[in-house]
Structures are given as structure tokens and as C-alpha cells.
TrEMBL record:
Name of the protein in its database record: non-specific serine/threonine protein kinase
Reaction catalysed by this enzyme: L-seryl-[protein] + ATP = O-phospho-L-seryl-[protein] + ADP + H(+); L-threonyl-[protein] + ATP = O-phospho-L-threonyl-[protein] + ADP + H(+)
Domain Wall-associated receptor kinase galacturonan-binding, first and last residues per copy: 27-87
Superkingdom of this protein's organism: Eukaryota
The keyword Signal is annotated on this UniProt entry: yes
Main location: membrane
UniProt keywords, alphabetically: Glycoprotein, Signal
Species this chain originates from: Datura stramonium
Pfam families: GUB_WAK_bind, WAK_assoc
Membrane topology (UniProt): Single-pass membrane protein
InterPro entries for this protein: WAK_assoc_C (IPR032872), WAK_GUB (IPR025287)
Amino acid sequence: MNFKKSSTFLSCIVFLLLPSLITSQTCQKSCGNIPIKYPFGTGPGCGDPRFQPYVICNNQQLSFKTHTGCYPVTSIDYNYQVMYISDPSMSTCACTQPSKGFSLDANAPFSFHDDTVFALLDCETDSSPIYKSNGGVNSTFPMCDSQGAPVCSLLYSCQAISRLNLPISTCCVYTPVDLGPSFEMDLEKLHCSSYSALYGFSGQELNPQAWKYGVALKYKFNFNNDYPDMCANCEKSNGVCGYGGPYSSFVCNCPSGFNTTNDCFLGSSWSNSYKNVPWQTGLLLIYALGWLVVLASM
């Protein structure tokens, strides 16, 4: 084989190998402006498989999905393990609108943060089951928080709600902490037209316009709530924690696009720093160089 043909052939081999060497990372580290860390992921095979059906990244919009709808995720506090979502159909001090309610799926690995407060608005006091007394046949626990009267009165003072001229008795503060980690807030069955949710007062308890409207959800990594060591090692090597195989076993998705069962680099320390070399990419490079040597000697 002459030198010119050999060079051309070598160029073709390198060109064919390049896509394998520069494959992009499948699991992304952000969705829109929200950083994505374990246990969440940006698609199938990313994050924890228990969370993947409920937290979805689509067109750079992170959303939380339940059987009642799909809700934008506004932020995630990874230090305290709290995810904040909004519901475009709920009422706030700025506007009031009809809603069907909000519920968690029974198997979802989430629970309501204790700071979350739900206020049911425009409820029919003569027919709504939430107004039955504790001694009633169908009542096993109070669904209205007797301490929530100030929230109702302040919400009903908002211009958007005050225009409806609703009596304060048609508002009921609905506390999820009394109802367990999963509950069904079906406003049609409760005979209420809308609801408002908030998770903070921003230090202005008497100013409903400044309240933090939305739903705060808690999550846990596992039963003991321990951050998995394999995932921590994966992230230290610039990888993203994911899963794969028939049993959804742990994998580390590397910047090269490949998955490993450990981490993304060969841990060789040079001057107190790491030389990050994805091992699959290293094998491909060795393979490619081997072919180049053989071809060059022909």
C-alpha cells in the first residue's frame, strides 16, 4: 500500500471512530435554569428509577407529574431535600380561578412539607363534607385547621377575591400534615370552587401579596435517607448517576456518553489533582491506535 493511499485510508478510519469518542453525555446536569442532581434525572435511565416517572424534563422545562396534572417545578433545595412546584390553575392574591384540585400519587416518593398550607376557597358550607362536625357519621378527623382563620381572612381581603363578595365562612384551611403523606384533594367532591397553596410568608404574614404561593414537597433518597456512596463517587468524577439493565441497577453516565458501574476516571493522582480519563474512551483510543500502527506498517 503506497503512502498516499495509506494516509487516505487512515483518515477514513479516524473519521469513523470519532463519533464514538465524542458521544455527548446522555444524562444532563440541568433542565432549563434548574440544576439536576440525584435522585432526579433528565430522562429515562437518569437519576433514581423511583423518581423518573414523576419528575420530567421536556424542552428544558422541569415538571412534576401526578394523576391530577403536570406542574412546573420552580426550584429544588438539595440541602434540605425539598422540591417546590406551582399550579397554574390555583388561586393567589393576584387572581382567582376555578380548579379541580391537587393530589399526589399514592406510590410517589414524595410527601408534603410541613410548611405547605392549602386554603380551600368558595366552599358550599351546607353541602361540603369538610364542614361536618367531628361527631358526624362520615367524619373521622377535622379537615379544617382552626388556626388557619387569619390565612382565610387575609386571602379574602385580596382584591381579586374580594370582588366575589364571598363570606369568610366559605374558606377552609386544609392541612395535609393531618391527612398523611398522600391525599386526594378533589374540589368537586369537597364542593369548593378553587384553592390556594403557599409554603412561606416571606416575613410578611399580614401581606398576602408577598406570600410564597406553590407547593413544597419533601423527598428521601431511601429508607434510611443516606446519599448512595456510588452516586457520590460518580458525581466526583464529573458523571451523572443513573440506572440501567433489567433490574435498574446503578450506572454512572460519563461525559463521553458511556456508562460505567463505578465512576468516570482512572484515579491517578498527579500533583494533588486527578487526571480524568473515562475508561471506555481509553479503550477505544488504544484500539484506534493499534489499528493505526498496523495500517502504517503495511
